[in-house]
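does this look right to u?? uracil version
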Amino acid sequence: MKLVKRIANLGYGSRKQVTTMFREGRVTDAAGEVLYADDKIEHESIRLDGEPLDPPPGLALMLHKPTGYTCSTKDAGRLVYDLLPPRFRLRDPSLSTVGRLDRDTSGLLLLTDDGALLHRIISPRANVVKRYRATLAEDLRGDEAALFASGTLMLDSETTPLAPAQLEALAPREAELSITEGRYHQVRRMFAAVGNHVLALHRVAIGGLALGHLPPGAWRALGVDEIASLFETSGESVSG
Ligand code: URA
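got this back:
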């Protein structure tokens, strides 16, 4: 693909605007040599105004979603995309959230422009474990872990029971729940099904990838090993 189109597809501007950037000598190699629109050069060596380019297609990133942000490109109000560089919204292929977190849920959110990767993560067959920490309005009764693990819990207005899920009580009103599915409002509805109410919900890990110490609102690109760690299977292997 031509250099102009490659840079335009990263959201830096229209092809016309990027062509102008070349004319103005703003696109260089790592040594500061001006590049021309038909030059052949690897991504890592390109600089725009002296800065390395954003990652090429194949980008996967983790974001610490704060509460109050919506996983959508066009809702009114704060969007998770507002936490990323504005040009990320103009990338082609486009950057999508890997599943969704509710507006009132915080924690680990993945975004990628790699459709195959996205489907691999959300596919029920992949069994990727999503681990949540829930703060509850009522004390745990004590029977929730067995019920959630049973594979028989049926949520309101659904026709198939939930796959087994692991609950770990951390305090009378604090629990971690590991689920492999991603049904609508699943965690909140699971606690509602046992007569409780989720006051705060935070996703701490997906597969073997933990949110770690990434501050709220911050993001970073994932490395190859981190992407592979998403597919570390069992709930026990989830750490962090
Ligand atoms: N379950 C929920 O209820 N909400 C989320 O945001 C994620 C899982």
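Helices lie at 3-12, 15-23, 115-122, 144-149, 186-193, 224-229. idk if thats expected tbh
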